[in-house]
Amino acid sequence: MPDGHDSAAPTVLNVNDRDAARYMVSQMLKASKFQVLEAATGEEALRQAQKTPDAIVLDVRLPDIDGYEVCRRLKAESPTASIPVLLTSAAFTGSEHRVEGLEAGADGYLVQPFEASELSATLRALLRIRAAERNAHDLANELREAVRIRDDFLSIAAHELKTPLTSLQLQLDSLADGLGSERALARKDKLLGKIDTAIRQTSRLAVLVDDLLDVSSITQGRFSIYPEEVDLERIVGDVNGRFSADAARVGSALTLETPGPIAARVDRLRIEQVVANLITNAIKYGGGKPIHTQLSATVSAARLIVRDHGIGIAAQDCERIFGRFERAVSADHYGGLGLGLFITRRIVEAHGGTIHVESELDSGSTFVVELPLAAAAAGAPAKDAPS
Amino acid sequence: MSEARLILVVDDDPDIRDTLSDVLADAGFIVSTAANGREALRALRQGLSPALILLDVMMPVMDGWQFRDEQLRAPELAGIPVVLLSAHSNVRDMVERTRPAGVLKKPLRLKELLAMLKSALAAPAPDYKG
């Protein structure tokens, strides 16, 4: 609770200048299991209120400033503005006084003499309302934040999807123009090159769209894995091979170290996705330096390490980057949806495994995945692979 | 058409650089590329003299905005016309700050690209008053 009281009993500030009346109200409060602070003047009340009690019982007649004015001042400033104030009076009991109190911002007005039960029931009602307000406020903040994240993401996603579309569209335009000319037919290899690039762009687009779909199904709790018997060495080797051209284009040498075949029961496509995501990131953020992938295994688990020597990740971001939509780089400088690691971790955890990164800025990153060799044994929501 | 004109393509995406090089070469241009603003500046300062710069906005290391600021500060480089490549729909602040000869929105069509280059290259040296 923001008030800083972590015990169960709410604290009430009891303000009354007459000792006997103040004592009696404090006794009533304690009997009703409230903790009590006291004040005998308006100024002291304002001071004590800075300790943010959960509620204030405030007598109207005070020697220095009257209760209405104290109430107005409490309500004019945070953090006291949100504390429920119950005005009390033995003398000012007419309806006009009650109205003045409520108009001054009081949340209630009790006329003395009152029973202990009426005091405590009224306070509890005010505390319930206050708790509901706080929940609504917190919820509103969460929703605002979620909308902001969504809007940022949409704008980044639009940019990302446009990148492969740009090459794709130009290549196809160029092909269409080219095929119209005789000169083009003599340069078949050039045309094939354009088609290759176009195909590569559609693959990139497909990956982006799949990432969006994955995130959507993960957040809706619809994500499942389909384990089957695989050889992890083969999977890692295949994926690594698929990226050799991309790595070469940025100047990164890809090396692979494996101990031999490793039998495991995992979701083949999803584990390929994990390896692909880690290698893609290494290429993107690797600064053109070597990228090393290493696979090893014990009797029960495999370990996959992907290490690059690029821009690295600040220590405080190493955990955050696995969050949805999180990236450790500025959106003005680096493309990317920020979904890959979120999905990767979800896949690894669905297999009963773990993934973390060790990194420092400018000295590269090392991603470490631990994967049980038998996903089904880890209690993951497993289904048998479709035949 | 007399001699081939040199275009400098600045974009962080390798496929976009390759594709633009390819289609512009087909259209009779000579093409140089750079992956970000800093590489582009380095090439220009080392004597590369393009007739026009095709400039992506969002790039690591030095983005399009920063590149343009630097270019406009250097009197020998400021006169080279720039066409912006942007994936964003809100282009107005971009234009105010960078005062390009034109803006192309991604994804773009080949015809649009060639028409824009033709008009940007034909225009007299801009005086940047507007």
Give a verbal description of the structure:
The complex is a heterodimer of chains A (387) and B (130). Chain A has 387 residues and is of the alpha/beta class. Chain A is built from 11 helices and 12 strands. In chain A, strands 2-1-3-4-5 form a 5-stranded parallel β-sheet, sandwiched between helices. Chain A is elongated. By secondary structure, chain B is of the alpha/beta class. Chain B is 40% helix and 18% strand. Chain B has helices at residues 14-26, 37-45, 64-73, 92-98, 110-122; strands at 6-10, 30-34, 52-56, 82-86, 102-105. Chain B has a 5-stranded parallel β-sheet. In chain B, strand 3 (52-56), helix 3 (64-73) and strand 4 form a beta-alpha-beta unit. In chain B, helix 2 (37-45) runs parallel beside helix 3 (64-73). The longest helix of chain B is centred in the first third of the chain and has 13 residues, at 14-26. The radius of gyration of chain B is 13 Å and the shape is globular. The N and C termini of chain B lie far apart (31 Å). The interface between A and B is medium-sized, with 30 and 26 residues.
Distinctive features:
heterodimer; A: 387 residues; alpha/beta; five-stranded parallel beta sheet; five-stranded mixed beta sheet; 11 helices; elongated; B: 130 residues; 5 helices; globular
Major beta sheet summary of chain B: 5 strands, parallel
The dominant shape of chain A is elongated
Major interchain interface with per-chain residue totals: A-B, 30 and 26 residues
Question: Into which percentage range does the β-strand content of chain A fall?
Answer: 15-25%
H/E element sequence of chain B: EHEHEHEHEH
Biggest beta-sheet profile of chain A: 5 strands, parallel
Strand order across the biggest sheet of chain A? 2-1-3-4-5
The radius of gyration of chain A is 33 Å
Please bin the fraction of helical residues of chain A: 40-55%
Please give the count of helices of chain A: 11
